[in-house]
Amino acid sequence: MRYLFIHQNFPGQYLHIVRHLAADPRNDVVFASEMSDGNIPGVRRINYSFGRKPRQDLHACVRDWEAAVKRAERVEALVRKLVPLGFKPDIIIGHHGWGELLNLPDIWPDVPILGYFEFYYHTAGYDVNFDPEYPMGPNFEPAVRAMNTINHAAIALGQHGQSPTRFQLGAYPEWARTRIELLPEGARLDQCKPDPTIRRDMLEIDGMQIAPSDKLITYVARNLEPYRGFHVMMRALPRLLAARPDLKVVMVGGNDVSYGAKLDGTTWKDYFTRQLPTGTDLERVRMPGQVPYDTYLKLLQRSDAHVYLTYPFVASWSLREALASGCVVVGADVAAVQEFVTDGRNGRLVRPLDPVHVTETVLELLEDEPQAKRLRHGARRYAEQNLDMRIHIAAFEARIAELVG
Q1: Does residue 66 share a domain with residue 167?
Q2: Residues ≥6 apart with Cβ < 8 Å to 48
Q3: Residue 182, beta-bridge partner list
Q4: What is the CATH number of the domain that holds 17?
Q5: What residue numbers bound the domain in which 61 lies?
Q6: 391-399, long-range: CB within 8 Å, 24+ apart, which pairs?
């Protein structure tokens, strides 16, 4: 089989399926993306250069669309170079979020496209204006609706779609869902797994030592930002630290912004750190940025409570991997998290914008070891029953077989 994958940030959501397909010498896997580091054995990368920002003289509602059509042109020009080389894919698989796939039916009209539909934006009921602390500006509705322009153009291709969760699929209008199939994503259960032995030794992270007798609270996001409840977690810190002298906290995430607004001249990390009350013991807190994957896994395995907060938005891979690692997850009580966490069975759900509720729940779990142990077992059991990456890869391959014929 010949596969053409496309995602501006290699390998994006396709890490595991690409690694699996490339391991079979019968497959020819080509991956088109922007220039970046990283390779997967058996994958031939082709790269395009973009790096431009939307013109600021354009109306705000069309800047993303202008960038999308420009990116579609760059990808089309790149992929056309494969034609004289004799490469014609049996299937094209890629993410629709940035417009990269929009022109590809013009090259190979008979090649099926399986496109990733990540999220459909709404003016109410989802992430927009969920947090009253950060409301949208006046007359925001047209801008939010314009964010679905790429979604609509992708659906209009008349091809095939996928979404990884019921929450994400359900965000799309009923007329669109007929072209989108639920293809869940899982976790590597052989990598993300409990390891009781890790509690026997000292663990060091960013110069802070975590002794076997210490209690460790973990928090993970791609970037430290309000969309992932960073402000709520920061406001929970003072009471958590004061209540437990044996408590250590590690908050993993970069200083950029993945979702939501940026601050001028500072980061959300610095902004909320400056707001902490005088006397907050930050010697017991570490925010090491983005860490190597093996360090991240060790933190999950060592965690006594893993806080996962988010707006009603796309759930992170880290939530699945925390459950698979047997974490006691304290998750935001929103639909995106409820799909994975049942309160009292494989984790606890808390009011996502309430630092007091977060604090009380974490402290309860630190005191109640039988409950914590039951939830750890429940998390791993849920992962074994629902998140096994091998099962989801097999389902993905079956869908490919249906489309290719």
Answers
A1: yes
A2: 32, 33, 34, 35, 74, 75, 77, 78
A3: 163
A4: 3.40.50.2000
A5: 2-186+389-404
A6: 391/186, 392/183, 392/184, 392/185, 392/186, 393/16, 393/17, 393/20, 395/183, 395/184, 396/17, 396/183, 399/114, 399/162, 399/181, 399/183
Tokens found for residue 303: 């965690």
Q: Dihedrals φ, ψ of 391, to 5°?
A: -70, -40
Could you tell me the pLDDT band of residue 139, with boundaries at 50, 70 and 90? confident
Residue 191, in any domain of the structure? no
What one-letter code names the amino acid at 302? R
In this structure, what is the dihedral angle of CA atoms 80, 86, 89, 93, given to the nearest 10 degrees?
-40
Per-residue confidence (pLDDT) for residue 57, from 0 to 100: 84
Q: Into how many domains does the chain fold?
A: 2
- Report how far residue 44's alpha carbon sits from residue 404's, in angstroms, rounded to the nearest whole number: 21
Percent of the chain surpassing pLDDT 90: 94
**Mean pLDDT, the chain, as a whole number?**
96
Q: Which has the minimum average pLDDT: 16-25, 45-54, 228-237?
A: 45-54
Q: Is 57 helix (H, G, I), strand (E, B) or coil?
A: coil
Verify cis geometry, omega within 30 degrees of 0, for the bond prior to 11.
yes
Q: Which helix (H) or strand (E) holds 77?
A: helix 63-80
pTM of the model: 0.95
For residue 60, the model assigns a pLDDT of 84
